[in-house]
Amino acid sequence: AGGQSIERVAAASAAARRLLQRLDELRPTDCSLDAAAAIDAVRDGYTEEKGRVVLHVVSDFRRRDWLDAEDRPRPDVVAALKRFTERGEVRLVDVGWNPVQNLGVVDLRPEDRAVVAGVPAVFVATVKNFGPDPVAVRSVTFAFGDRVQPAVPVEGTLQPRQTVEVKAEYTFRAAGPAVVEARLLTDALPGDDVRRRTVEVRTSMRFLLVDGEPEAEDFRGETDFLAAALAPPGKVESGVEVEVVSEHAFAGRELTDYDGVFLCNVYRVPEESVARLEEFVKAGGGLVFFLGDQVDPQIYNTSFFGRGDEAGEKLLPLLLRDVEGSTETYLHPATPSPDHPVTRFLRGMNQIVFRTIAVSRYVKGELAGRGDGRVLLSYSDEGGSPMIAEKSFGDGRILLFTTAADLEWSNFPQSMLYLAMLQETARYVVRPDAGASTLVAGAPIAIRYDPNVMGSAVAIVPPPELGGAPVSISPMKENPDSPVLVYRYDRTQVAGVYAARMRTREGEDMERPSAVNVDATEGDVERAATERVRDAVPGARIERAADEGSQDTDDSDRTEFWRTLVYALLAMAALETLLAWRFGHHTAKPVAPEGKQVFVR
Q1: Residue 356: helix, strand or coil by DSSP?
Q2: CB neighbour class for 31 (10 Å; exposed up to 12, middle 13-18, buried from 19)
Q3: Which residues contact 208 (CB under 8 A, 6 or more apart)?
Q4: So what's the pLDDT on residue 163?
Q5: Least confident stretch, 53-67, 527-541, 583-597
Q6: CA–CA separation, 396 vs 423, rounded Å?
Q7: CA-to-CA distance for 179 and 108, rounded, in angstroms?
Q8: What pTM did the predictor assign?
Q9: Residues 4-48 pLDDT 10s
């Protein structure tokens, strides 16, 4: 029996060397921990083993991984640990340390829904202080493609758990996919110090203007001022293209080629066109109503607001009432919503500017029904009648101007505010960028395209950290009835830019990047109370690997710490085997079946 136990100790030492060699070969991923899945995977790997199993769970026990939103042990993790206690013992090896100071970039987005070549675009990076103490952010560095911009300084101190938005402006000169990056100075936890996203830079934003009262003479038609405000002539590009059609031509118009539709003093829209508009807006398209003398409020309410149980759930933000006002009295804009993109530019503006706008007639509207309408700008009458209202509908946005787009009901089109407000309106309602995306590490990259347009060869070029060698991927049918193919790439465990290389049928090479980031909450270093996890699992034990205050954040020291920890745990397992032999030998009792030590980091 003694010889057998010595052989077991020797075997354990050899296993320790092999395990340490394997640990040296492993590299951590940027994926979030799924503790329950990891524990179940280890358990499934030892279902055929006999005897007692000891599970060592080596963790820093961050709160986000082990406790739920109500600060209770996560039920899935507790259930996985309890399944292990059916055949052995659970030891929670706490290698965590007190929270360190950590800043992270938790979001990066364009301020507008579309990025257009030749037009300045503003990007917003959100920085969060995950650490326990106030800290100065100092600066954020933005990169657009391969162009790194000067660092944007950030003033002030960020309190614990607080965020700050940092903005940078950039003008893309060419259309196509591009990568935007925001980066902080590296701190103790560098994984969340950078965030990337892809954007699809467009050649323009396209809007369809439906003119309910066209005229041959310049600036006499319903949409003439509107077209000039959206796409003004001159050297300064607005990034907007407009196409004007009559309400009769609109009936059969295909909308998928446009980013938004303006209905200007249109008398009636056929039911089939209303249904197409609803689908268009629901899918992300924009819709803007301008009213006028041809609009019948009752017809509009039936077509666009809804009746009975549907009241407020269709396209109109307001329930329309009667036409108000006269040519003898005038109203002015008042009380703009200060937090809305369309009216934000009016903040702090002198009221004298508002009084230069004279509105003689408008359609009175009110918030009603079950819709989510919101008033952005009111008139100066006693009741504060709405001038501009908005609502969301699916992925799309809708604005309603209760006066006309031409000079028939007001001098608004001649105001200095008209051009600015219509430019803001276009950027607010425009169809969102379909190419803008950011993925979390571990999420698959899906590439969809029509094989009638593209060639069949697609390769993914991973980040340099993964070698950067192209990997060919094969397509699969998304739908048996559709020619569209889907290419999926699942090996995105490391954050960075993954470039898909493909070629069109005409032989043109294309490259489409995908940005993969760590989960925005990964930087949260708040620790869970390991006692709470232990108490939820009967029989579980807690072991402290080292004094928490002595942990060093240097990577090289941490590697040596892990090696020392694994040696200590394996030596403990070998010692248990040796002691079992010794006491069993002296008492002449049979040796129990060999136990199994399992480690999960």
Answers
A1: coil
A2: middle
A3: 242, 243, 245, 250, 253, 255, 258, 260, 261, 262
A4: 96
A5: 583-597
A6: 17
A7: 11
A8: 0.82
A9: 555 555 665 676 677 778 777 777 889 998 989 988 888 776 655
For tokens 């072991």, name the residue.
Answer: 543
Closest CA to 424 of 451, 446, 450, 397: 397
Residues 241, 263: contact at Cβ < 8 Å? no
Tell me how many helices (H) and strands (E) the chain has.
12, 31
Beta-bridge partner residues of 527? 62
> Which pLDDT tens digit goes with each residue over 361-413?
999 999 998 888 999 999 999 889 999 999 999 999 999 999 999 999 999 99
Helix 35-45 and helix 75-85, axial crossing angle in degrees, nearest 10: 20
- Return the H-helix or E-strand segment holding 137: strand 135-144
Q: Is the pLDDT of residue 503 over 90?
A: no
pLDDT(561) > 70? no
Rounded CA gap, 303 and 290, in Å? 15
> Rounded to 5 degrees, what are φ and ψ at 484?
-65, 135
> Cβ contacts of residue 10 below 8 Å, gap of 6+?
none
The rounded distance, in Å, linking the Cα atoms of 101 and 192 is 13
Q: Considering Cα of 171, then 174, then 179, then 184, what sign does the dihedral take?
A: negative
pLDDT value, residue 295: 95
Q: How far apart are the first and last CA of the chain?
A: 34
Tokens of 125: 């990076």
Task: Work out the burial of residue 549: count CB atoms within 10 Å of its CB; fewer than 13 is exposed, 13-18 middle, 19 or more buried.
Answer: exposed
CA pair distance 50, 271, nearest whole angstrom: 72
d(C-alpha 65, C-alpha 505), whole Å:
47
**pLDDT at position 595, please?**
47
Q: Are strands 509-517 and 439-440 parallel, antiparallel or unpaired?
A: parallel
For residue 571, the model assigns a pLDDT of 54
One-letter amino acid for residue 600 of the chain: V
pLDDT reading at 568 higher than 60: no
- Enter the tokens of residue 118: 């030749």
Supply 304's token pair: 């666009």
CA-to-CA dists, residue 55 to 14, 48, 83, 201, 312, angstroms: 20, 15, 11, 52, 58
Beta carbons of 170 and 121 less than 8 angstroms apart: yes
Name the amino acid, one letter, at 177.
P
Strands 454-461 and 496-504 come out as antiparallel
Q: Which pLDDT score, from 0 to 100, does residue 297 have? A: 95
The CA–CA distances, whole Å, from 452 to 456, 474, 503, 504, 505 equal 10, 16, 12, 9, 8
